[in-house]
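Much of what follows relies on a compact textual record of a protein's fold. Think of the row as the fold of the chain written in a discrete alphabet. An example makes this concrete, so a full record is given next.


***
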Amino acid sequence: MRPHLPLNSLRAFEAASRHMNFVDAAAELGVTPAAVSQHIRKLEDLVGAQLFDRTTRSLALTEKAKSVYPAVSEGFGRLDTAMRELLADRQQNVVTISTTASFASCWLLPRLDRFQGRNRNVTVHVDARNEHVDFVRDNVDVSIRQGTGKYAGLSAELLVEDRALVVCNPRFFDSSGTPQSPDQLVGHQLLHVDWKIQSQAAPTWQKWFEYHGLEGSSADCGTHFSMEEHAVKAAVAGMGLALATLAFVSDDISSGSLIRALPEGFDMSTDFNHYLVYPKSSLQKTAVRKFIFWL
């Protein structure tokens, strides 16, 4: 007779062991940290051994937990794979896309109706989050990521070759005259993005001024935003000058909501571009192949 498997407690153990943090594990599982702690205590009572060494500042696996974690992790991975196979036929016409909230709002969503118009039998799920997903655990088919295009074990296709440009409301320079060189932007209200990506790759105002030989310019003053989308919306509203990547402002420039503050020759190259990323196994789904072909 097989022993009773406390799946909820085992799932809490697996997530907490992977994150080494009850708060992050709880966020992944959609429960409270207290619930994660309770599940793990139940598991510890069941097996008669402590699984975590807890302090006020850290969490560590005991030797007992280290010995069983690989099997537990592999077990849930195989369960996830089995469930995906069971749902394979039903999921053939479903595609789940992971991308950031800003890219979804500014680039993907304005175009997505074209795909749906041509593929009315396909169900689309957009999973907008800033952190990278696990394709198997999070049940994601394709991801649009900003990076270098190097993702181990995954296929990556260049989607948007980004460059940073200065944009503003069409009437922003009505009183001062249209600038013709980067030094003429000094002193204007700047809109900043507090980038979460690697600092050396983020297109910041400081880098833009340095790129154009204006190292001494004050680049920190102005309004700061946690998302590029919000900086772009502030520029549309006339609040200041935004340094934005092309993917986020191309539609606004086409519609006339924004203009380039300077000619194209003053754009700044970036280290990161937007890539379509997916495991080869995703190509087994009809909906995914349709989406990738369309994109």
